[in-house]
Amino acid sequence: MDDATSQEEIAPLTGVAVAKALGCFWGAFVALNTIRAAVLGYSNPIAAFERRLVVASVGIILSWLIYRLLVRLRPASLRIGIALTSAMSLPAALVFATVNFLIFDMLTPMPGESCHAGTPCTMHDLVVSVSDMLINWAFVFVAWGALYLALASAAQTRAADLRSSADREAARLAQIRALRYQINPHFLFNVLNSLTALVSRRETAEAEALIGEIGSFLRYGLATDPVADATLGDEVEMQQRYLELERRRFPARLTIVTDIARAAAVVPVPQLLLQPLIENAIKHGVGRTSAPVTITISAAITADRLLEIVVADDAPTPLEGSPTTASTPNSFGIGLNNVRDRLAARFGHAARFAAGPSAAGGFRAKILIPLGDD
After folding, report:
1. Cβ–Cβ contacts within 10 Å for residue 50, how many?
2. 107 backbone dihedrals φ, ψ, rounded to 5°
3. What is the rounded CA–CA span in Å between residue 185 and residue 192?
4. Which of 28, 63, 166, 265 could share a disulfide with 233, CB 3.0–4.6 Å?
């Protein structure tokens, strides 16, 4: 018995579960004694079986009373529960042994059998028989009590595991929601910057078109379930809409290229997972150079059944400084940390994320997601 179990009260089982346990326990008692009588060749097997059923019924009643007392007393640990069961087993065994003797030897004696060669049994015989069998029957009731306590403890453990699992799932969903909600302020800040730039240049028609596009994007970005999935194809389509919004700020300098394999496009991914990567490419790539920049979004299924997503740009300046990977998360910025944390919250160690300056120039972020995992 571990200390963690002993520190919590033993939770009662349902009445149905106890009834089933009692039926199995005393059914085994009747079956084993019937088999023993048949093997030893006892006479009058039918009469003995009928009396055995009556005695077993008394045992069921006594066992039920022990169960009810344990529920009422609510032992604080298995040790205390076993001690209480042991204490209750002696009076239960006394009653059971007495009823057993009365049924088989005094009130309805077996045909052709008596205590002393045909003479009726006396109270002295009753005392002797009960005292001889008291300890044996006491152990039977202790066994029943231990069985009940074990079943109750197992039920409590299962319930605790379910509660713990539910708590972990609630915490995981809360974490995913929090991470998802971090994306929206960044997005709003960026699109408002775009709108401000158009208004300052008095490009009214472009500003009005941008407002309409912002509304369309916000319906997707703010109104959807934070823990829901979208197919990669839909996710990339929404990122293309966002990039079209940003292209209004950099009409001559931003080129967008997508290369999504057909098999990869139907794979579900967390919504807005790519948004921080796209925003970083705009802010730290396009926004920090006057040279033309191409942002590429590609995805494919690898040979080892992983969804590989790559977001890269060819800006001449690195996105977030020195080389960095998922193994050195402290060097990540807010956006990259968000992607890493969302992947960890959703897929655990099964997903991988790496980001850093590309050898050919610019910045490259790669996500690997296991197929078929939640």
Report:
1. 12
2. -75, -45
3. 10
4. 265
Structural domain that includes position 115 = 3-166
Question: Is 209 part of any domain?
Answer: no
Q: Are residues 244 and 117 in the same domain?
A: no
- The reply to whether the predicted model has a pTM over 0.90 is no
3-state helix vs strand vs coil in the chain, percent to 5: 65, 15, 25
- From first to last of the 374 residues of the chain, give the pLDDT tens digit: 444 433 344 455 667 778 888 888 888 888 888 888 888 877 777 888 888 888 888 888 888 888 888 888 777 777 788 888 888 888 888 888 888 888 877 777 766 655 655 566 777 777 777 777 888 888 888 888 888 888 777 777 787 777 767 656 655 655 555 555 555 566 677 677 778 877 888 878 877 877 877 777 667 666 666 667 889 999 898 888 888 877 877 778 889 999 999 999 999 998 878 888 988 888 888 878 888 999 999 999 999 999 999 999 998 854 444 333 333 334 457 778 888 888 888 888 889 999 999 887 889 999 999 986 44
Contact 310, 328 (CB under 8 A): no
Q: Same structural domain for residues 29 and 158? A: yes
Q: CA 29 to CA 44: how far, in whole Å?
A: 19
Residue that finishes a domain, picked among 166, 184, 199: 166
Q: Residue 343 CB: number of other CB atoms within 10 A? A: 23
Per the CB < 8 A criterion, the answer to whether 73 and 84 are in contact is: yes
H or E element in which residue 270 lies? strand 268-270
Cα–Cα distance, 293 to 280 (Å, whole number):
13
DSSP 292: -
Q: Among 275, 286, 250, which residue's Cα sits nearest to residue 186?
A: 275
